[in-house]
Amino acid sequence: MIAITGATGQLGHYIIESLMKTVPASQIVAIVRNPAKAQALAAQGITVRQADYGDEAALTSALQGVEKLLLISSSEVGQRARSIVMLLMPQRRLA
């Protein structure tokens, strides 16, 4: 499976749209902070999982079964490096 963080943002939307041309929706995981904003993705057959960069347990759960990860990092000032580190921590344990 391929996971995309920030899937409900503008860039995430374009990436998923393009990805669906070559990958079945059933192989795509949208990692989002607010699942209510991802209803259209779920309606297309994409798996939606809730997680936040600050919640390591939620990230670990959201990344279960994921083989490839596309990180769209946080655009909040001063949070980009933290979001990358938090996302890599569970990935190391799952490897």
Automatic annotation (TrEMBL):
Domain NmrA-like: from-to ranges: 2-71
InterPro entries (UniProt xref): NAD(P)-bd_dom_sf, NmrA-like, NmrA-type_oxidoreductase
Domain of life: Bacteria
Alphabetical keyword list: Oxidoreductase
Native species: Escherichia coli
EC identifiers of the protein: 1.6.5.2
Protein name: NAD(P)H:quinone oxidoreductase
Matching SUPFAM superfamilies: NAD(P)-binding Rossmann-fold domains
PANTHER family referenced in this protein's UniProt entry, alphabetically: NMRA-LIKE DOMAIN-CONTAINING PROTEIN, QUINONE OXIDOREDUCTASE 2
GO molecular function: NAD(P)H dehydrogenase (quinone) activity
